[in-house]
Amino acid sequence: MSQTTTDRTAIDDTDRTGADGDGRPPARPKRSGPKWATWARILVPALLILVWLTGAGLGGQLFSKVSEVATNDQTLYLPESSDAAAVQAQLDDFLGADSIPAIVVWSSDEALDENDLAAIDEALADVAEVADVNEASPAIPSEDGLAAQAFIAIDADAELAPAVDGIRTAVTDANSTELQVNITGPAGFTADLSSAFAGIDGLLLLVALAVVLVILIIVYRSPLLPFIVLSTSLFALCSALLLVFYLAKWDVLLLSSQTQGILFILVIGAATDYSLLYTARYRETLRTYESKWDATWAALRGTWEPVLASGGTVIAGLLMLLFSDLKTNSTLGPVAAIGIVFAMLSALTLLPALLYWAGRVAFWPRKAKYDPEFSADDEAIHGKGFWPWLARNVRKAPRAIWIVTTIVLAVLAGFAFQLKAEGVPTSEFVLGESDARDGQEVLGEHFPAGSGSPAYVIVPEAELQPTADALLAIDGISSVSVTATDSPAGTAPVTEDGIQAFGPPGAPAPEPTLVDGRVMLQATLVDAADSDAAQQTVLEVRDALDDEALVGGVTATAIDTNETAIADRNLIIPIVLLVITLILMLLLRSIVAPLLLIATTVLSFGTAMGVAALLFNHVLEFPGADPSVPLYGFVFLVALGIDYNIFLMTRVREESLLHGTHEGVQRGLAVTGGVITSAGIVLAATFAALAVLPIMFLAQLAFIVAFGVLLDTFIVRSLLVPALVHDIGRKVWWPSKLARGKE
Questions:
Q1: Mean pLDDT of all residues in 387-414
Q2: Residue 19: what pLDDT?
Q3: Which end of the chain has the lower number of beta carbons within 10 A, N or C?
Q4: In this predicted structure, what is the pLDDT of residue 672?
């Protein structure tokens, strides 16, 4: 393999090949050099390893503590300008204690009797003693007599999963009549979500590392090298986590469990990819250079530019998420970008240091012996392996290959418009069993399904009654009450006749709570708060009220989140395309080639989305997808898909400078095919590991990215791009001088 880099626009064949012009650098004997150089070769790698070991040691201790600085509260991720966020900010002023409601619902096939109600009262007395429970309401029987519900206020600063587990234990122990008991409401769903994310620190990481290790063992067939590469990825992750943890702790950035999972997968996959590229170069330079120090520097010269270009492209794409108004998107950008920075640094510093110390032993039992007659270029053009064979055949019939491939991909991409990405109910976030989802179904059978998750409406005091009348006129609203702290229930019913009193006829009606001259109405929805029908009702509420009214709550939060996510998607996708195109133009010194690469990558993304739509709609029968799924899929697939095209095209350009475009494509594909395919398999496998967590969003993202990466690796980068470049010829490099060079 040539030790030159891709920017040798002015180097001729004599400069590159030496006196013989045979494509090999002149044989270089081992050099002892001055004494300080000998010490530098010992101390520099040792210092690099020590620095990374320290960072990994400090960061590794934080895996079990990340949950302390992470949050899954949707309202914290809303844009500050949204109604839902404005209402959420004022809830404490109206409701007093900052709490999150859980709903306990008891049900039976037969009417509840006195023994059942006594057992429920006993359970509620025990619940009131549970840690982090602020208060528990009395039991409220259903009109059909088959169920009862109670509202439990949990301290908002508490960890919801343990608190809900404590409530569940209390009601289960007191359930002497064997009623069916479920815990639902906002706290119940958040607890289920937290439980689903519980495996993120252990199961997800172990599965990802195990899958990568197996692939590396198959690729390298070496007892030592897979562990060197895997340790590089793990050290990068630990060090990145160290920085991210403290940035989140100091409130510099917002971290969620979802972002945390993506960070783990992205760093492991990217660091392994970059390590594969360097390792392949290092093995070839060990055969070209007798000194492993010279081989290390030659491998770095051939690796740093594509790695920095690829990583820089991914970082640029991720940072475009900062334009998002949705904080779940804008916070993912810098967190993931930090991960990519550490992935690049580990592959370009730690891995070279480790492999320098290991030397040729790292590749045992495969050969990496010094061979002055070895030429990677000769192997690429005349080799008998799969990739030299494929490269020769693509060169023979490029037009037929790219036309057939494009037609097939375009047909599959046409199904992308069938992807239902307008949002999914909160109850569907968790795959598999969900006590909160079961409880919501029971609640909907015996009570207004929106109980416990009302729509909050904040209006001026003078608008209280007209607003209540407008709300009661909407079919999707069961009842309306006003927040009143001096009422025993904390609220007072509001009818067409005004605020009603609790207690005997003639009792005085409680005064509504006033905050800056405004009151807060609570509208109980007929339908479940996370249903499409409830969202339609809240939209009707917003249409019926004037601009002074603020409408919030669980349903309004979902509406504002989905609308913002769709707007972000429409804004960010074009920006990402533009930025990556400009980066490619600078890297390849061309206009045509970058546009070609972007077009093929977008086609690959469309195909992945089309296949995903068919799978999600007709096989897995998912109810839909979060609006952020296409955005995340696009950012990862375009940025990461461009990675492989960068690995390929930088090498193709390097070879084209010396041999012409057609032979450059053949040589580039033959030389990079194996390592890029291995990298694609590793990245796809790591993203597929996200599916071990029972979260619909992550399962959908896992398939889209994993399938898209494999599609890009095996079809787009191996067939479509080389065939197109062959067919276009040297004009693909326009307007650089290479466009006027040898075909």
A1: 94
A2: 37
A3: C
A4: 85
Helix (H, G, I), strand (E, B) or coil at 578: helix
pLDDT of residue 34: 63
Res 503 pLDDT > 70:
no
Please give the pLDDT value at position 309: 86
Which DSSP string do the residues of 315-338 spell out, in sequence order?
A: HHHHHGGGG-SSHHHHHHHHHHHH
CATH code for the structural domain at 454-552: 3.30.70
Burial of 340 per CB tally in 10 Å (0-12, 13-18, 19+)? buried
Query: Which 3 state secondary structure label does DSSP give 36?
Result: helix
Interval 495-505 mean pLDDT: 74
CA dihedral 81, 419, 629, 605 (to 10 degrees): -120
- 196, 258 contact by CB (below 8 A): no
pLDDT tens profile 150-200: 989 888 778 888 899 999 998 888 776 778 999 998 889 888 888 888 766
CB 75 within 8 A of CB 123: no
More confident residue, 617 or 95: 617
| Domain 98-195: CATH superfamily, name plus number | ACT domain (3.30.70.260)
pTM: 0.84
The answer, yes or no, to whether residue 31 has pLDDT greater than 80, is: no
CB atoms within 10 A of CB 104: 29
- Which region among 161-170, 196-205, 383-392 has the lowest average model confidence (pLDDT)? 196-205
Contact by Cβ (8 Å): 182, 167: no
Per the CB < 8 A criterion, the answer to whether 385 and 675 are in contact is no
* Phi, psi at 649, each rounded to 5°: -75, -30
CA–CA gap between residue 561 and residue 549 (Å, rounded): 19
> At residue 524, does pLDDT exceed 80?
yes
Strand ranges for 176-331 from DSSP E: 180-184
- Check residues 613 and 492 and name the one with the higher pLDDT: 613
How far is the C-alpha of 380 from the C-alpha of 371, rounded, in Å? 17
The boundaries of every CATH 3.30.70.260 domain in the chain are: 98-195
Q: Which of 65-69, 403-407, 677-681 has the lowest mean pLDDT?
A: 65-69
Quick one: three-class SS letters along 80-141? CCCHHHHHHHHHHHHHCCCEEEEEEEEECCCCCCHHHHHHHHHHHHHHCCCCCEEEECCCEE
Distance from chain centroid for Cα 172: 37
Of residues 586, 701, 569, 575, the one with CA closest to residue 637: 701
Q: Is the previous residue joined to 365 through a cis bond, with omega within 30 degrees of 0?
A: yes
Q: Which single residue is written with the structure tokens 């694609």?
A: 680
Q: How many CB atoms lie within 10 A of CB 212?
A: 25
Q: Who contacts 466 (Cβ-Cβ below 8 Å, separation ≥6)?
A: none
Do residues 215 and 678 touch, judged by C-beta distance below 8 A? yes
Strand partners, 102: 152
Lay out the sheet containing 518-525: strands in order across.
498-499, 491-495, 477-483, 518-525, 455-460, 550-552
CA 149 to CA 143: how far, in whole Å?
Answer: 12
| Helix axis angle, 257-288 to 696-711, nearest 10° | 20
Give the contacts of 104 (CB within 8 A, at least 6 positions apart). Answer: 123, 124, 127, 149, 150, 152, 167, 171, 181, 182, 183
Going by pLDDT thresholds of 50, 70 and 90, the confidence category of residue 260 is confident
Higher pLDDT, 710 or 741: 710
Answer for the pair 652, 593: CB distance below 8 angstroms, yes or no.
Answer: no
635 touches 318 (CB < 8 A)? yes
Q: Mean pLDDT over residues 266-273, rounded?
A: 92
